[in-house]
């Protein structure tokens, strides 16, 4: 029998039936009044999700496209930027900045460790001539399951006064609290296939008034990713280019579901499932890659020492049709990652942990009592 496929990866994430049914409708014209009404609702609900009264713009791109747009619209060649790099995606933003001839000053940490906010403070305080134009941070580092201390780093950026803060919230938006207006975040990028609970294809960029001021001086080349036409068209509930109509209709349904659940409940669910997963791994004798206190609510990275990470993923897929993510770059074969992001329920966590226990038994992993992982996860869920 073909089993139901379970995506337990950080993207694409599972899509609710309501969203799938919404996307299955016949397309409508993207210049029609009907579509404009959908755009108006979606824009309003995006601002609710982002906790902002400022612009939240939709682009037909991945999360990487959203972040590239968030960088190139507000900077000029030669601008000095601090870029946090403690994983695959931090490294990617360094590469994007270098591709656009920015003066990149990386702030690094070992993969699996959070960035040190003090390193940012020291560099920002030393910049008495205000040459630093932006600080670029990955909030939830998907490649390692680490969440960085965005709130503290942002405070140091605000004390600097000149620099923008540009945030990769691709796997934290919709999973963790990112109060854009309360924290005064300038540019926040994210992607649809994560906490939004819809397939890949849409990127989102939230932009502050301070960032729009920087836009007027920015000189980096841009055309399709020029955010000004998106802002102008969004004010009229339309788009500058042809959008993925059915994907936006799916987004409408997903945002309605999220509003019904409520922000606090969404954040609590992700935190509960992260804690349940982490406690289960400890009970199974599997080392966690991210230290306690720095785990991401979107994904948990596991670094097994007695079994091969790729064998774990293979058995989970072949035996149980559960897809786990692997390690990237030098971590390939050394870790596997369990996604608990978006449309994931407590039942999914228990199912994945139980299947992982069976996989470990098959692979000869010892050092745990049968049922210990499920019991540990269930204890966290019951108390939350």
TrEMBL record:
Annotated PROSITE patterns: AA_TRANSFER_CLASS_5
Cofactors named for this entry: pyridoxal 5'-phosphate
Gene3D superfamilies named among the record's database cross-references: Aspartate Aminotransferase, domain 1, Type I PLP-dependent aspartate aminotransferase-like (Major domain)
GO BP: glycine biosynthetic process, by transamination of glyoxylate
Binding site for substrate: 337
Keyword Transferase: yes
Superkingdom in the source lineage: Bacteria
UniProt entry tagged with the keyword Transferase: yes
Keywords: Aminotransferase, Pyridoxal phosphate, Transferase
Catalytic activity, EC: 2.6.1.45
InterPro entries, A to Z: Aminotrans_V_dom, Aminotrans_V_PyrdxlP_BS, PyrdxlP-dep_Trfase, PyrdxlP-dep_Trfase_major, PyrdxlP-dep_Trfase_small, SP_NH2Trfase/AEP_transaminase
Coiled-coil zones: none
A Pfam family annotated for this UniProt entry: Aminotran_5
Residues modified as N6-(pyridoxal phosphate)lysine: 194
Example GO molecular function: alanine-glyoxylate transaminase activity
Domain Aminotransferase class V: 10-328
Assigned protein family: Belongs to the class-V pyridoxal-phosphate-dependent aminotransferase family.
PANTHER family (alphabetical): ALANINE--GLYOXYLATE AMINOTRANSFERASE, AMINOTRANSFERASE CLASS V
Identification of the protein by name: Serine--glyoxylate transaminase
Organism of provenance: Crinalium epipsammum PCC 9333
């Amino acid at each position: 029998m073909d089993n139901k496929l379970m995506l337990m990866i950080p993207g694409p994430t599972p899509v609710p039936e309501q969203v799938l049914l919404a996307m299955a409708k016949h397309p409508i014209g993207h210049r029609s009044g009907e579509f404009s009404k959908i755009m108006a609702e979606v824009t309003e609900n995006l601002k609710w999700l982002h906790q902002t009264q400022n612009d939240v713009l939709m682009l037909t791109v991945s999360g990487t496209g959203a972040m590239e747009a968030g960088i190139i619209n507000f900077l000029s060649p030669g601008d000095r930027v601090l870029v946090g790099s403690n994983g695959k995606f931090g490294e990617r933003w360094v590469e994007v900045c270098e591709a656009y001839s920015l003066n990149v000053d990386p702030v690094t940490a070992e993969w699996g460790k959070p960035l040190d906010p003090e390193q940012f403070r020291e560099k920002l305080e030393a910049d008495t001539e205000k040459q630093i134009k932006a600080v670029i941070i990955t909030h939830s580092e998907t490649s390692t399951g680490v969440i960085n201390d965005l709130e503290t780093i942002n405070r140091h950026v605000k004390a600097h006064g000149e620099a923008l803060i540009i945030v990769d919230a691709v796997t934290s938006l919709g999973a963790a609290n990112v109060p854009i207006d309360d924290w005064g975040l300038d540019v926040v990028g994210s992607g649809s296939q994560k906490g939004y609970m819809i397939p890949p294809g849409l990127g989102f960029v939230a932009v502050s008034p301070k960032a729009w001021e920087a836009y007027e001086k920015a000189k980096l080349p841009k055309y399709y990713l020029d955010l000004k036409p998106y802002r102008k068209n969004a004010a009229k509930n339309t788009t500058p280019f042809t959008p993925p109509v059915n994907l936006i209709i799916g987004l409408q349904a997903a945002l309605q579901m999220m509003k019904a659940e409520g922000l606090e409940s969404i954040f609590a669910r992700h935190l509960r499932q992260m804690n349940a997963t982490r406690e289960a791994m400890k009970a199974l004798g599997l080392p966690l890659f991210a230290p306690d206190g720095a785990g991401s609510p979107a994904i948990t990275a596991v670094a097994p020492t007695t079994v091969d990470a790729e064998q774990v993923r293979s058995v989970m897929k072949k035996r149980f049709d559960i897809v786990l993510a692997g390690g990237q770059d030098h971590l390939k074969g050394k870790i596997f990652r369990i996604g608990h992001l978006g449309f994931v329920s407590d039942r999914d966590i228990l199912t994945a942990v139980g299947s992982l226990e069976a996989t470990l038994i098959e692979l000869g992993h010892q050092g745990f009592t049968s049922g210990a992982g499920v019991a540990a996860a269930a204890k966290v869920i019951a108390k939350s």
